[in-house]
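On clarity, I found the account of how folds are encoded harder to follow than it need be. What matters is that the chain and its backbone geometry are given together, residue for residue. The format is easy to grasp once an entry is in front of the reader. For illustration, here is how one protein appears when written out as sequence plus structure tokens.
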Amino acid sequence: MKNKILSLFLFFFSYAFFQAEYIFAQGEIHGNFQVDAQYYNADSAIGALPVPEKMLMNSFTNLIYTNGSFSAGVRFESYLNSMQGFDPRYIGNGIPFRYASFNRDNFTITVGSYYEQFGSGLIFRSYEERGLGYDNAMDGISVKFTPYKGVYLKGLVGKQRYYFTHGPGIVRGFDGEVSLNEMITSMNEKKTKIFLGGSFVSKFQSDQDPVYILPQNVGAWAYRLKLNHGGWAFFSEYATKINDPSSVNNYIYKRGGGLYVNSSYSQKGLGVNLAAKVIDNMNFRSDRTAQNNDLMINYLPSLTRQHTYNLASTIYPYATQPNGEMAYQADITYTMKKNTLLGGNYGTTLLINYASANGLDTVRVPSGLGYKANYTKFGQVYYKDFNIEIQKKINKSFKFNLFYANFAYNKEVALGKVGEGMVYANIEVFDFTYKFNDTHALRMELQALQTKQDKGDWATVLAEYTISPKWFFTALCQYNYGNSIVSDRQLYPIAQIGFIKNSTRVTLGYGKQRAGVFCIGGICRVVPASNGATISISSSF
């Protein structure tokens, strides 16, 4: 009898195994891989300190399986040890991101790790920016549901990633959006598209503080409106948060608030974008003691141009100030028509941008509320940037960009450099590309920065030679020729060679990296000075 039971068990086990193998074989597996490593040399002239390990490495691999409405994935990460400029708490090996997701009957259910955003992110955005070492992935459960045409609902609960562990707080959220044109039949064909949305997010963290009586549940609300009509678009979101004393706001009990407005118009040859925001005490984290970029629940968009040129992007970068900021930005892109005096044979594109960020005009108040803000006046100048760019193609072989920027930059606020105050700078760039034939091309950038404050004038020269579709060679040299301290007038040369085949890219380099700050979207990380060889390998399948 026992043998019969065992035989029956083996039969059903084998059947289930082969069925599972068959089902698995019907799906697809894809993913990507990247490894970045650097060998470090000490260099006292530029302030590059010795690295005990000599070589440091960041790497990751994503594996994703999909089969119809089901998907699952894992990400393996390795920091042996983390490269300079990344938080040293990224250390060792692990699988910090893994998930399974299923979609059926207008439901999408995800368990494990996930990223999500409500509206513009004023009260919730979970995302990854690998170049910054930033990852606040949620770990828990996410549900999306469309109960009726044009109605989109999201709900989630979980904890945030904190390097290879999780933060102490629990985050819970709900978001709903309605597309009136989809929901109401009579509006289906209307040119004006109307979207209404709202969000609620709360965090729970127990109060174990010996000094303060702290709220254990902190809630935030947001309401948004989006309109589209032809080339016009308008978006606005207002957010508010109850009192949330933390180490970032010096444990005040003031409520938080934020308003973000964006309006744009586009037609052939013309694009205009206007944006403004007010941020007041909107630091929102799942751990009230967290600092820097750790455990941020929300995202406060930066209203500054994301510069690509070296001197404009790395010397004076700006990070959003969560405790208080009033900012606005205007963009105009205009393309002059072909076969005109200014347009030439290929047209000429003109880009004009102005961005400004100021502190709040505040008055101190008692009772632990910290301050009261006057939103009708601008406070201290944090950042101003006026820039203009001309993009011009002369013929099939030659094209160029001309770029000019004028900065006003408060180092004490933006970089925490107490007592250094305002810096005023001008930047000019001449960027051109010459194609010798269909496979060989040379691109060069000539950059200059002038300022009477800080470390004085800078110059950067970059040359990149491309042999399509596989090879490229790059040489860059940055020089602080205007530094008032002659011994600090350092050269920062970097040389790279790269190889590309299909989705695989390999880059080798050697050089000196200036100490500075690297920012993307208003979030920054400090980059220390370094001297050494680098290698980067990436691929996808």
Observations:
- The CA atoms of residues 198 and 267 lie 30 Å apart.
- The two ends are 51 Å apart (CA to CA).
- The longest helix spans residues 2-25.
